[in-house]
User: What shape does this take?
Amino acid sequence: MRRYLISFAIGGLGGTIFWLLSMPLAFMLGALTAVAIFAFGGGKAAFPSRLRPWVLASIGTTLGANVTPDTVHGFLLWWPGLVGVCLFVGIAGAGSVWLAQKLAGFDRKTAIFAGVPGGFSEMVVLAEAHGCNVRLVALVHALRVTLVAFLVPFAASWITPAPVGAVAAPRPILHIWEIGPESWIWLCAAIPAGIGFGGLCRLPSPYILGPMLLSSVLHGLGLTDFRLPFEILVLAQISLGTMIGTRFLGASWREILRYLPYTLASLLYLLTLTLLFAMLMSRAFGMPLVAGVLAYAPGGFAEMGMMAIVLGVDPGFVGLHHLLRMVVINFTVPVVLRLTRGQDWQSGMTQATAPRPRDLRQGRGSG
Assistant: This one.
């Protein structure tokens, strides 16, 4: 318990500092920075695994709460971007896997799990099930999600310094004392129901997607208009940043520096591809550029969703694109593995004997 409280206090301090500096997504990025530095410095950063589903569920519920009946009418207009996601996944995955083999020296199987821009948890679990070096896969994805969480908010803020209202205008801040009893009842029922729905449907990242889909349906049909108050959102952002920061517990600077060149090269490739796809969708179909960047960015679901709220981009628009990305990757990775079976598997089994980083896998996030 003491480790949890210390980690959360450090995350809260970092978030407050970033907020005072007017940084984008201040509470999440500040908490992430502070806890990661604490972990690298030898501190025993930790986040309670039992609290993780509720943090992600609260964020998912918030994303879904930004859907309105008017938003539902816009779903049919999003098909070009969704088609683009399928192309993006193929091009991004192929290039990143190639870089993993050439720059990092990974065997083909490990390169697939480390290079494909899928969800952190899903890629780590699949890598472990296929006998890959889980430590390498976890470390590479943790670096990717963390760097994207830092770079994309600044890039998006540079593209559009004011809220853009890509599909929906930003809503005013709601404080905890302004919520009525009916909204509290909806909120307390929707979060656990969403967690159960996500698990029942076997969704990727069920703790965030289940509540988001359920909240989207409730708000899209006009059954309710409940929202999470500002104070709870701040706690959720600090918790999310703390969770990501704890992923680096047990990692050394030597490991980080060893795989940093590949991670940076892969990230440059993925972000360049993200910008190209966003520009193409903007010119061809009128999609706002910042909305395209958030929709195609190879980051975590929760992080990009929170950034969408900050910039006034419809989180449902961003979330649907990231959901499709994860679904496509989860279906295609096993197929690719079967097609490449027998190539570099011996070296993959050799690397699989490396120790597994329990600490790196404890902080599984949404990305």
The chain has one domain: 49-228+252-362.
